[in-house]
Specification:
single chain; 232 residues; mainly alpha
């Protein structure tokens, strides 16, 4: 699905769909790393790893998070270029049009802004819609397995699939706006999705670093656990 969305994003000239494809690609990589580290971290301690293999999971998370941040910055840079490309024309159109004239002929006015420029193909929206359904199905399936195996890693990965569905929903809105005659909305949608990518990657990286560095939990958590143990 990520390859299909990537090809469609390039072919149909959609920054939002291209960013969504990068997000999906990071999920595939994340799933592979999660599967490997899930199995590796549960191996018993041995001579080469006397304290066990638990750190492998955090190292895998760092790898995926770095990919997420890099993808977010790359796609965000491309989307920003698209926003800056459309912005002068829109400002000029708004300044040259009277309010009543602009409201009465908004569709034609926007088309005059994008004349000669690349416009989003309406077919791009179907790839984003399909991605919502697929990611929601993956969320339900992964969450079910996570609860059955009591695996926090799989449960976290399930919520990652849910975030992908929301990301695709943003893409649908952005592409829909572009189809209605506002191509800048697709570029803005690409910026929003890329920001979500970078934010998700940064949060994952910080959690992994805290785990590797053996950072203690927040004081409030320690207090709650101590109080609960005192009642036993």
């Amino acid at each position: 699905m990520s390859v299909a969305k990537g090809v469609a994003g390039v072919y149909f000239h959609s920054s939002a769909l291209l960013a969504d494809a990068a997000h999906s690609l990071s999920d595939i990589l994340g799933d592979l790393v999660t599967l490997y580290t899930f199995r590796k971290s549960r191996q018993p301690a041995d001579a080469s790893h006397p304290y066990g293999y638990g750190r492998y999971e955090a190292l895998g998370t760092l790898f995926v998070s770095a990919f997420l941040v890099a993808a977010g910055l790359g796609i965000g840079s491309h989307a920003l270029d698209q926003v800056l490309h459309h912005l002068p024309g829109i400002i000029g159109t708004v300044a040259a049009s009277a309010p009543s004239s602009f409201l009465g002929h908004s569709h034609g006015g926007v088309h005059s802004v994008v004349d000669g420029a690349v416009v989003v193909d309406p077919r791009a929206i179907w790839f984003a819609v399909g991605s919502i359904g697929i990611n929601e199905a993956l969320f339900q399936a992964t969450m079910k397995v996570g609860h059955r195996t009591k695996s926090n890693v799989l449960i976290a990965n399930a919520w990652h699939h849910r975030s992908d569905a929301l990301t695709s929903l943003v893409s649908v809105g952005a592409i829909g706006g572009a189809i209605m005659g506002f191509p800048i909305l697709d570029a803005i949608g690409g910026l929003v999705v890329s920001a979500m990518l970078a934010k998700s990657g940064t949060q994952m990286a910080m959690e992994a670093i805290r785990e590797i560095a053996d950072t203690p939990p927040p004081i409030q958590v320690i207090t709650d656990v101590t109080d609960a143990l005192a009642l036993v």
